Amino acid sequence: MTAEPDDFLRAVEAALFVAETPLTPAEIKLHVGEGGDLDAALGALADHYAGRGVNLVERGGRWHFQTASDLAHILRREKDEPRKLSRAAMETLAIIAYHEPVSRAEIEAIRGVQVAKGTLDVLMEAGWVRPAGRREVPGRPLIYATTVDFLSHFGLSSRRDLPGMDDLRAAGLLDPVDLALEGLGGQSVVENDEEDA
């Protein structure tokens, strides 16, 4: 963007700058019209803002400006620390993220224990999980999926960016039980999902 930016590019930049929530390309076009190549404009803006104090990023098919990750500590406000998720909630969130859409019965089958209704409520109140319809089987159970807020909170562009087994092992985040099961030839939740993808 060394040359003078065109009016379409400037309009896209302005629409994203004032947006209260991340915008899909269709929503951006509602604001700026069809006067140019939107993909090229978004790419040019993302390149222009790369390495600056704010970056233009795409998360789950929606575009927004966010503070550069290395500067986030400067803008952090002091506030009460939100309650941490319980282990059950973290496990449930991970199962939904790797297997979505998934029903409560499927979550319970993977975890091996019942899921309390409060666990799913906490995840929905956080905005990370949403009802995604009903499975077309007898009883038509409700199924759950992650949200764009989940992707944004964890800095993911899509579910494909979720860490795999090698990433988790390298970060030292695997539970010793998972490592023991792997040594015995057991499969983890992550490996099963990677085979399905």
TrEMBL record:
Keywords: Cell cycle, Cell division, Chromosome partition, Cytoplasm
Domain of life: Bacteria
InterPro entries the UniProt entry points to: ScpB_csome_segregation, WH-like_DNA-bd_sf, WH_DNA-bd_sf
SUPFAM superfamilies (alphabetical): Winged helix' DNA-binding domain
Keyword Zinc: no
Pfam families with a match to the protein in the record: SMC_ScpB
Keyword set includes Transcription regulation: no
NCBIfam families: SMC-Scp complex subunit ScpB
Protein name: Segregation and condensation protein B
Taxonomic source organism: Sphingomonas bisphenolicum
